[in-house]
Amino acid sequence: MKRVLYTGSFDPITNGHLDLINRASKLCDELVVGVIENKSKIPFFTIEERTGMIEKATKHLKNVKVDSFCGLLADYVNAHNISAVVRGLRATMDFEYEIQMAQMNARLFKKDVETIFLMTSPDYSFISSSMIKEVFSLKGNIKGLVPDVILECMESKLAEKTGGIEK
Ligand code: COA
């Protein structure tokens, strides 16, 4: 069975991530979306919330499983019989960071595991989770950039943090 891993902090998952998940899920038997705590970022949603949100956004995709973990991506790959890791490339600026990570990970994998890059759809190549959160927090329109179900989660979370949604 070809089990492929797509990781990220997904804080929150966007339509850019979802596009990649849709496309990657067609290339394998099982796609594991792995939510990782990125130590360099202060999260808006807890890891449990992010995992639940991805489950909601991907429930139409039968071969997609959501998991969360901390520590090294390579340790997860080595322990879970992962055949390949998929990453998205949005622009040339992503390339340098991605090649470094892919080459370091290749040293840490215990067997041959490829890192595969998919080009992000041009409709979403300009977005990031931080930009989505910033525009949302300043009451800009992010409809169409995150799944509707995620927009609802963001509204609830903001209400929880501020004690009510400001109109
Ligand atoms: N559409 C929209 N946005 C996208 C996107 C896409 N297709 N692909 C990436 N992005 C956004 C992400 O939302 C993220 O936004 P943010 O910086 O505002 O949060 C940004 O682009 C960067 O994405 P990514 O590089 O995937 O960062 P990440 O924090 O989501 O994930 C990890 C990075 C967790 C995968 C990486 O740090 C990791 O592997 N950590 C594990 C520890 C480890 O093994 N370290 C050694 C590595 S060699």
Mean pLDDT: 94
What shape does the CA trace take? globular
Q: Please, what is the CATH homologous superfamily?
A: HUPs
Please identify the top-level CATH class: Alpha Beta
Number of domains: 1
Radius of gyration (CA) equals 16 Å
Strand content: 15-25%
Low-confidence stretches: none
The helicity comes to 40-55%
Give the bound compounds: coenzyme A
- SSE string: EHEHEHEHEHH
Tally of extended strands? 5
Order of strands in the sheet with the most strands? Answer: 3-2-1-4-5
The CATH architecture would be 3-Layer(aba) Sandwich
Class derived from helix and strand content: alpha/beta
CATH topology: Rossmann fold
- Please outline the major beta sheet: 5 strands, parallel
Straight-line N-to-C gap: 50 Å
Number of helices: 6
What does this structure look like?
The protein is α/β, with parallel strands linked by helices. It has a single domain (3-162), classed as Rossmann fold (3-Layer(aba) Sandwich). The protein is 42% helix and 19% strand. Strands 3-2-1-4-5 form a 5-stranded parallel beta sheet, with helices on both faces. The protein is globular. The N and C termini lie far apart (50 Å). Coenzyme A (COA) is lined by residues 7-9, 11, 14, 16-17, 20, 36, 38, 41, 72-74, 88, 90, 101, 104-105, 120, 124, 127-130.
Structure at a glance:
This protein is α/β, with parallel strands linked by helices and 167 residues long. Helix content is 42%, strand content 19%.
Write the layout of secondary structure elements.
Layout: E1 3-8, H1 15-25, E2 30-36, H2 47-57, E3 64-69, H3 73-79, E4 84-89, H4 92-108, E5 114-119, H5 129-137, H6 148-162
Parallel strand pairs: 1-2, 1-4, 2-3, 4-5
Bound molecules: coenzyme A.
Coenzyme A is lined by residues 7-9, 11, 14, 16-17, 20, 36, 38, 41, 72-74, 88, 90, 101, 104-105, 120, 124, 127-130.
